[in-house]
């Protein structure tokens, strides 16, 4: 299977005189249907990387290939059709004056006929469970609701790839859960590829693969199990540990022998009750 | 803060006036302001007042809102009326002191000016109260469309207008947040003399400006990511429907004009 996103040795500097590039020789492939989480501390180049994927930034060196097209000035609008992006601040990316206008905005840009738009707006709002709010203004919505509208706006464009650029970082735990659940559901229904840039380690634990960034470089790639089994070393990379891993650390300090491999929350529960019964 | 501003507020409803096409309402209120200058005697003003009251009644919006629209302008109106009353000469002189005189014509002119002001404010308040801001900007875009011929950037202007309208409540919230945050740090708003008051505004204004710049950048990025390339080749989600009731309103306005010309002395 051909990768949907392929970065070959990308380097990007915001200013030519910058001593350290924001992205430093990064290469990666992402395959259709994958859920990728890109993690790393602040200033590690995660968001810059996301912006190079849909051509908001053109790299100084290297080649970006998205959905079979090589990124250049000519192909950038075609690539943006294939890539939907949801940003961090729910207020600042809400273009429309009402929910339905905002969902329609991207389609208006692509010149979708009006009859099509009406049905697609309706479907997209249903997918994120916001149909009852179609005529509401953004000022009367919660943060999580605004992000769900932003997702609906992206989904209505039927992209192959959705990039969530810290889309849940300004939400409360409830809003975060709602948004992630909405994306999960849509991903299952339409075979999307998702790239999620996140600080939320529990969100990252749900991904198929993790990419760890540090100072503009891609320092680690792997499944959550592989990455999280590094344990305390993650803290040196400026990352937090997932909850089961933290629990393991505390149990270890109390002298219990815990398995070395990474356990998900369910795995942890399994291990806990079996080990108690075995005693 | 929002409660004080009656201007530009929208009262949701589904009356006859609410359901009218925004273009009808926009052009109708402009036209009304134009033909109000046709009236020049008691009968015509009485007739216009009756027309306005019927329009207000049709909107089913409580009259207090209209009164609130007039109230902030009351001093301006009374000042103009007073000027008219005391400086117009002609007819029977009721009272005189130096150059000030109260005459028959003066009183009449004063009352007419008062009616004119109040009726204009009532009509424009009716427009903003019964039309959502977004529909108003749609109507404006439509009305401005002929200006495309002279290279006027109609799409850009209407996009700016609708984004501006959409950010008004967001920025209001933010202003309040910054004000409270600065108050918590000891800034006194609205205290002291004029210079002190102006100085107190600075810690509110600068963060508001900076955050608006950041917002603008975020919004531009988000718009670009969603494929916005300018007005060319765009379709529109929102369309305006001209209905039979709009034609009826046009007929009513035509009749109104004829009657006013007939009543003119």
Automatic annotation (TrEMBL), chain A:
GO terms for cellular component: ATP-binding cassette (ABC) transporter complex. Pfam families: ABC_tran. Keywords: ATP-binding, Cell membrane, Hydrolase, Membrane, Nucleotide-binding, Translocase, Transport. It is a peripheral membrane protein. Residues 5-240 form the ABC transporter domain. It is an enzyme of class 3 (hydrolase). Its main location: membrane. Gene3D superfamilies: P-loop containing nucleotide triphosphate hydrolases (3.40.50.300). GO terms for molecular function: ATP binding; ATP hydrolysis activity; ATPase-coupled transmembrane transporter activity. It comes from the Bacteria. It is found in: Cell membrane. Its EC number is 3.6.3.-. Belongs to the ABC transporter superfamily. PANTHER family: ENERGY-COUPLING FACTOR TRANSPORTER ATP-BINDING PROTEIN ECFA1 (PTHR43553:SF24), HEAVY METAL TRANSPORTER (PTHR43553). This is ABC transporter, ATP-binding protein.
TrEMBL record, chain B:
Pfam families: CbiQ. It is a multi-pass membrane protein. GO terms for molecular function: transmembrane transporter activity. The keyword Membrane applies. One of its GO terms (cellular component) is plasma membrane. Keywords: Cell membrane, Membrane, Transmembrane, Transmembrane helix, Transport. The keyword Nucleus does not apply. It comes from the Bacteria. It is found in: Cell membrane. Transmembrane (T) component of an energy-coupling factor (ECF) ABC-transporter complex. Unlike classic ABC transporters this ECF transporter provides the energy necessary to transport a number of different substrates. HAMAP family: EcfT. Belongs to the energy-coupling factor EcfT family. PANTHER family: PROTEIN ABCI12, CHLOROPLASTIC. Forms a stable energy-coupling factor (ECF) transporter complex composed of 2 membrane-embedded substrate-binding proteins (S component), 2 ATP-binding proteins (A component) and 2 transmembrane proteins (T component). This is Energy-coupling factor transporter transmembrane protein EcfT. It comes from Enterococcus italicus (strain DSM 15952 / CCUG 50447 / LMG 22039 / TP 1.5).
């Amino acid at each position: 299977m051909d990768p949907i996103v392929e970065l070959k040795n990308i380097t990007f500097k915001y200013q030519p005189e910058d001593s350290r590039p924001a992205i430093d020789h990064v290469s990666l492939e992402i395959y259709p249907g994958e859920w990728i989480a890109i993690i790393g501390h602040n200033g590690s180049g995660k968001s810059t990387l996301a912006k190079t994927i849909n051509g908001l930034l053109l790299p100084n060196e290297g080649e970006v290939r998205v959905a079979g097209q090589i990124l250049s000035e000519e192909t950038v609008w075609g690539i943006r059709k294939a890539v939907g992006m949801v940003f961090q601040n729910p207020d600042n990316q809400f273009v429309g004056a009402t929910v339905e206008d905002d969902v329609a905005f991207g389609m208006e840009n692509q010149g979708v006929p009006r009859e099509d738009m009406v049905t697609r707006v309706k479907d997209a709002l249903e997918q994120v469970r916001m149909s009852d709010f179609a005529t509401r203004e953004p000022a009367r919505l919660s943060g999580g609701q605004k992000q769900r509208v932003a997702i609906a706006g992206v989904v209505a464009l039927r992209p192959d790839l959705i990039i969530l650029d810290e889309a849940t970082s300004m939400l409360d735990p409830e809003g975060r859960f709602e948004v992630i659940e909405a994306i999960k559901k849509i991903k299952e229904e339409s075979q999307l590829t998702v790239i999620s840039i996140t600080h939320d380690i529990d969100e990252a634990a749900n991904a198929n693969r993790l990419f760890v960034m540090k100072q503009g470089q891609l320092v680690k790639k792997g499944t959550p199990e592989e990455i999280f089994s590094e344990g305390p070393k993650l803290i040196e990379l400026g990352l937090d540990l997932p909850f089961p891993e933290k629990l393991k650390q505390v149990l270890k300090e109390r002298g219990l022998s815990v398995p070395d491999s990474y356990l998900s929350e369910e795995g942890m529960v399994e291990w806990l009750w079996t080990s108690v019964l075995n005693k | 803060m929002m409660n004080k501003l009656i201007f530009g507020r929208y009262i949701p409803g589904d009356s006859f006036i609410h359901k009218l096409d925004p273009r009808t309402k926009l052009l109708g209120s402009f036209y009304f302001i134009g033909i109000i200058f046709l009236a020049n005697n008691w009968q015509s003003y009485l007739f216009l007042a009756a027309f306005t009251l019927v329009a207000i009644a049709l909107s089913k919006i409580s009259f207090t809102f209209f009164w609130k629209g007039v109230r902030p302008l009351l001093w301006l109106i009374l000042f103009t009326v007073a000027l008219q009353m005391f400086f117009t000469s002609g007819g029977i002189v009721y009272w005189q002191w130096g150059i000030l005189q109260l005459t028959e014509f003066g009183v009449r002119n004063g009352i007419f000016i008062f009616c004119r002001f109040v009726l204009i404010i009532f009509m424009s308040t009716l427009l903003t109260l019964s039309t959502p801001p977004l529909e108003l900007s749609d109507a404006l875009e439509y009305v401005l469309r002929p200006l495309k011929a002279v290279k006027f950037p109609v799409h850009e202007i209407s996009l700016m207008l609708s984004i501006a309208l959409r950010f008004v409540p967001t920025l209001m919230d933010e202003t309040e947040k910054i004000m409270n945050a600065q108050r918590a740090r000891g800034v006194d708003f609205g205290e002291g003399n004029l210079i002190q008051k102006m100085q107190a505004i600075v810690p509110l204004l600068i963060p508001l400006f900076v955050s608006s710049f950041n917002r603008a950048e975020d919004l531009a990025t988000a718009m670009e990511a969603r494929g916005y390339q300018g007005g060319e080749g765009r379709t529109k989600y929102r369309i305006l429907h001209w209905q039979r009731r709009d034609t009826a309103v046009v007929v009513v306005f035509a009749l109104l004009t004829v009657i006013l010309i007939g009543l003119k002395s």
